[in-house]
Structure formats: structure tokens, C-alpha cells
Amino acid sequence: MTLNDVMAQNVAMEALETGIDPEYVIEEGFYAGIIMIEEMFKEGKVFLPHMIAASEAMEAGVRILMPSKENILYGMKSKGTVLIGTIEGDIHSIGKDIVATSLQIDGYDVIDLGVDVPVETFIEKSINIHPDVVATSALMTITMTNQLTLEKELKEAGIRYSLKTMVGGTPVTPEWAQAIGADIYGSDASDVVRKVNAILGSKNRNSCSSEKLLTVKVSH
Ligand code: B12
User: Fold this and answer.
1) How remote is the CA of residue 152 from the centroid of ligand 1, in Å?
2) Whether 74 and 176 share a structural domain
3) How many domains are there within the chain?
4) Domain range for 120
5) Residue 92 CA to ligand 1 centre (angstroms)
6) Is the shortest distance between the CB of 61 and ligand 1 below 6 Å?
7) Could you report the per-residue pLDDT of 37-90, keeping only the tens digit for each?
8) Which atom of ligand 1 is nearest to the CA of 48?
């Protein structure tokens, strides 16, 4: 852990102690910071190692701001299962982690497959786990196309009808989601939680998965 990471953690702890909404700290603090670094990167004022250091510091801070899921979720009934990962070819993790954690906090069983997840892995896990939602994050225009491949392969595997798909990430738009046939587009964590609740709401009222206790622990 670097000095930057420790400083980011300290700022996050200070914010929690003063009672500021953690989501506000992420959006207006860490997110704004990383976008500033991106601008400096584009202008050639900082380089890739600096971006990596900045994003690691952001991750360290965000981890502090996300409450201990095990405490919150103990004994809570699952609202459903979400399989999530950053799509093949893409290693960006921060946004995906925030979405995963927010869904967990809201009562979903979240299985986080990590980053650079091959389309085949999403298919295999969907067949074995029967998730309610398969969610993919894409931060680059070239990796967005793998979200389309996933749609096609879910159909070929004969399981597309049995689940909902959800897409997000900086270059992903509602138009893209519609064009590839994804069920849900989410712009940020609160939008995701609202939309997943809306789309699974009717199912949850009758489903046996709502009787299942949450078991998955947070992986990050
Ligand atoms: C930090 C960062 C990195 C870090 C990533 C660290 C990490 N652990 O994630 C590092 C330095 C490693 C990195 C590497 C690279 N990066 Co980069 N990176 C960024 C940066 C500056 C911020 C991304 C971020 O973390 N944002 C903060 C989070 C909170 O926001 P978010 O990801 O958008 O997530 C929110 C929403 O999008 C949504 N969401 C996210 N995921 C999901 C999933 C679902 C299902 C849903 C519903 C919603 C959702 O909810 C989140 C919470 O609000 C962006 C710039 C940008 N404007 O996005 C470039 C950016 C994404 N990177 C870019 C590039 C090109 C790269 C590299 C190829 C650079 C290189 N030359 O090596 C490599 C990628 C290698 C690879 N194979 O993936 C480009 C992509 C361009 C494009 N359009 O294709 C960007 C846009 C920068 C730019 N302007 O050029 N990067």
C-alpha cells in the first residue's frame, strides 16, 4: 500500500466520521479526482503509471466508503442473483466494483467474476448458477462489442430467455443497450439498483429465490 492509498483511506474515514453521504464522497470527491487525472493524462501532464497510482488510491478510498457487507447482509433474504464482471479485453474495475457492492448492499446475491472475463465464462457460469441478471461493464469502445457477442452466445446456448442482461460503463449508452438487445442500461450505481429492483420486483414477489439467504461475501 502506497502513501497515496493511505491518504485516500484517511480522507474516506474522515468523511465517514463527519457523516457525509459515502455516495457523495465517491461522486464528488474520488470520481472528480480521477477525471482530473484523466484530463492531465490527455494533456500529457501525467503518464500511465500516474493514472494507475491514482486509480489504486481511488480504489483504496472507495473500499473504506463501502460498508461491511457481511454485517449488513447477515440473515437478510436475497432479492435475486446477479452475475457481474468486466467484459473480455477490459481491465477497468472501479465502476463495476461500485455497482456490484451497491447491489449487494441492496440485498442481491452478487457473484463478481472480476475483470477481463471471457464471454465463455459468463455462459458457463450462467448455465451453472442460473442468475437473474448477467451484468457486464465495458469502459472501452473496442470491448463494448463483446457485450454484443455475449447477447448472441446467450441465445445460442438457449438461455437468453431465462435471465436479464444489464450493461454499463463510460462509453455504453441506452441506445447501445437497445441496439444489442440488452434488457437494462445503468448509468451509475443508484440507477442500476433502481432499475434492477423495478425489473425483478414482480418476480421477487413470487419467487423462491427471495427465500434464499444471502451467502456471497465481498471479493474486494
Ligand atoms: C482509471 C482508469 C484506468 C485505470 C483502471 C484501474 C482500475 N482498477 O479500474 C488504468 C490506469 C489501469 C487504466 C488502463 C487503461 N485505460 Co483507462 N481509464 C481510467 C479512467 C480515467 C477512469 C475510469 C474509472 O475508474 N472511472 C470511475 C468509475 C466510478 O466510473 P465508471 O467506470 O464510469 O463507472 C460508473 C458507470 O460507468 C457505471 N458502470 C460501470 N460499470 C458498470 C457495469 C454495469 C453492468 C452497469 C449497469 C453500470 C456500470 O456505474 C459506475 C458507477 O457510477 C477512464 C476515463 C473515463 N472518463 O472513464 C479511462 C479510460 C476508460 N481508459 C481508457 C484506455 C484507452 C485505457 C488503456 C487502454 C490505456 C493504455 N494505453 O494502456 C488501459 C486499458 C487496458 C485494458 N485492456 O483494459 C480510455 C478508453 C477509451 C475508449 N473509449 O475506448 C478512457 C476513456 C480514457 C480516455 N479518455 O482515453 N485506465
Assistant:
1) 25
2) yes
3) 2
4) 70-211
5) 5
6) no
7) 888 988 999 998 898 888 889 889 988 887 644 445 555 678 999 999 999 999
8) 11
Atom 79, ligand 1: which residue's CA is nearest?
Answer: 140
Least confident of 102-106, 114-118, 157-161, 196-200: 102-106
| Cβ 181 vs Cβ 173: under 8 Å | no
pTM: 0.86
Non-local CB neighbours of 26 within 8 Å, separated by 6+ positions? 62, 65, 98
- Indicate whether 88 and 56 sit together in one domain: no
| C-alpha cell at position 124 | 458457463
Q: Are residues 156 and 142 in the same domain?
A: yes
CA–CA distances in Å: residue 47 to residues 39, 44, 89, 112, 170? 11, 7, 21, 30, 21
Q: How far is the CA of 139 from the centre of ligand 1 (A)?
A: 5
* C-alpha 21 to ligand 1 mean position (Å): 24
Among 32, 65, 98, which residue terminates a domain?
65
